[in-house]
Amino acid sequence: MKKFQLDLFLKIIGISSASGLIYKNDSLYIISDNSNVLYEYSMATADLQKHFLIENEAVNENVPKNLKSDFEAITQYEDDIFVVGSGSTAIRNKMIQLSETRKTVLQNHDLTDLYLSMQYFAGISAEDFNIEGVIFTGEKWYFFQRGNGKNAKNGIFTIESPYFTQGYSLLYNSFNLPKINGIPTSFTDAILVDDTFYFLAAAEDSQSTYLDGEVAGSCVGQIDLKTMKLKKIKKISNEHKFEGITLFKKSEDVLEFLLCEDKDNEILESTIYKLTLNR
After folding, report:
1. Distances from the Cα of 196 to the Cαs of 22, 62, 78, 164, 185, in angstroms?
2. Residue pLDDT, tens place only, 25-44
3. Across-strand partners of 28?
4. What are phi and psi of 116, to 5 degrees?
5. Prediction pTM value
6. Residues 156 and 172 sit within 8 Å (Cβ to Cβ)
7. Can you spell out the DSSP letters for 74-111?
């Protein structure tokens, strides 16, 4: 990670508070933390489609803060897409499983028991608990805990079970992340490329998983999958709160990622950035 380049990639009208994204087959699948929608944006036609995650909801976009499901993480395995709530309040414990080809909801998982087990196992209070990144490999799940609460608990939960509804083993690795202008950074998303986690961490001047604060910037970093050791971390912005990362292109020497920014407002416009890293 000797050099990086951050460029404006595109703007999408119709999405506010983007919190996660997946790039596949020339399309971007985007979630928002204040909506119950999986957005599908075609790079070829600039067409935006909406796939509703929850049935019979009166409001599905710009949902009031006290009512929102707070979908902060998105991951994919084979044909299935998983959209995951943060767990930062009792109504934010949903995981919606969809078929990528059919664009239909397959199952609505309740993660309440799992999240309670995570909190107990890692010694994280309910007030400090906040999942903002999830990765599924087909055999293991990795949940990235954002330490933007009072006790700054950043960590990765590893669930060694394809489907954790019936028996699973649980591991937890904690991480100390640097500050930007005196403000601690905390995990906001991650993906797995080969044997390395590439993660985002944002600095936000707040000690609450519920209330937003002034943004001081974002970093990108690497964690070794096998050792769970922090390898590198680098500041990429003094002003943006990047909350979503997906792989766009890769070669032996260069990786290109697409990032989405959460501006914590209700304006129906999202900006996607391209981050280029030298390996």
Report:
1. 17, 35, 20, 23, 20
2. 999 999 999 999 999 999 99
3. 23, 41
4. -65, -40
5. 0.95
6. yes
7. EEEETTEEEEEE--SSTT--EEEEEETTTTEEEEEEE-
